[in-house]
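Quick start: load a record and inspect it. Here is Biopolymer transporter ExbD:
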Amino acid sequence: MKFRRKPRETVDINLASLIDVVFILLLFFVVTTTFTRETQLRVDLPESVSGTPADDQSKPLDIAISADGVFSVNNQILAKSDLASLMDALQKEANGDTNRPLSISADGKTQHQSVVTAMDAAGKLGFSHLRMTTIEAAPPAP
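Running the structure step on this input writes:
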């Protein structure tokens, strides 16, 4: 006995729904991704060759840091050496003018963390002109 075979149907995959799912996943990942914007301070380091002061019309703010990490803003010693009190003192001295140049004078033996705290306070308040003061190195002995 010979059975008749049915003709086979061609099987094709409908890609339209797959493409829809891929676009929805792509849209989901684009919307839920967070992009962090790194903020940076522009640091104008003084050149050791010239040794001349900068020509600024406005009076610069000065943060001095002693060897044991005590802060002073414009020669006024702060009671606490933390970020909050430094930010308060800078706001009071600057009167909201963040375009004024800010100079950090740190002792050679100051811990790096104290200098970073001063730079962090300046960055959080929006100061963009930051200078690190140094002294000219003595020439090497012959």
